[in-house]
């Protein structure tokens, strides 16, 4: 068993019979009264963020997790299939455990987080940016690029994002998977 002195960002703990990741924490020692630790916890199943306060020195149950890179194969409608590049073992993962499934393309590598005690999948994280090709967008009008006007573009995965007017069909874009925004054009 560990205590609140062992808190660090990214630590996985068991709290109220569920797994949480510590997003941020702050040790507070008021002038009067006992010390405490103010935290923000992210539920690994639902993704909800919970503010919580622990008394200093409280015992906590740290959970071990393992991150394994796995290659995305295909989606069969029931789930997303990933394969380990080391053991070639294939697993099916539900859509709600993936941070940005709309940007997944066959062959992409995702980081699968496993709970080591139960060998269950907790989440799948894509890289922070991915490069995707534009399959459809309206043509931009010449001379209309001085403003920050945006238009919609459909990517090769079927995702629709907002892009600047100068983007054309066939351009490869770097897309932020956290918020689904356009970052830049990828140079070939």
Structure description:
With 188 residues, the protein is an all-beta fold. The protein has three domains: 2-62, SH3 type barrels, CATH 2.30.30.30; 65-125, Beta Barrel (OB fold (Dihydrolipoamide Acetyltransferase, E2P)), CATH 2.40.50.140; 129-185, Nucleic acid-binding proteins (OB fold (Dihydrolipoamide Acetyltransferase, E2P)), CATH 2.40.50. It has strands spanning 2-3, 12-15, 18-28, 36-43, 49-55, 59-62, 65-75, 80-84, 90-93, 109-115, 120-125, 129-137, 150-155, 160-164, 172-176, 181-185. The model has no long low-confidence stretch (mean pLDDT 89).
Helix-strand blueprint:
Blueprint: E1 2-3, E2 12-15, E3 18-28, E4 36-43, E5 49-55, E6 59-62, E7 65-75, E8 80-84, E9 90-93, E10 109-115, E11 120-125, E12 129-137, E13 150-155, E14 160-164, E15 172-176, E16 181-185
Antiparallel strand pairs: 1-6, 2-3, 2-6, 3-4, 4-5, 7-8, 7-10, 8-9, 10-11, 12-13, 12-15, 13-14, 15-16
Keywords:
mainly beta; OB fold (Dihydrolipoamide Acetyltransferase, E2P); 188 residues; SH3 type barrels; 3 domains; 53% strand; 16 strands; five-stranded antiparallel beta sheet; six-stranded antiparallel beta sheet
Low-confidence stretches: none
Describe the strand arrangement of the main beta sheet, using strand numbers: 1-6-2-3-4-5
User: Under the CATH scheme, which class of the largest domain?
Assistant: Mainly Beta
Which radius of gyration do the C-alpha atoms yield?
A: 21 Å
Total separate domains: 3
Helicity level: under 10%
- In whole angstroms, how far apart are the ends? 52 Å
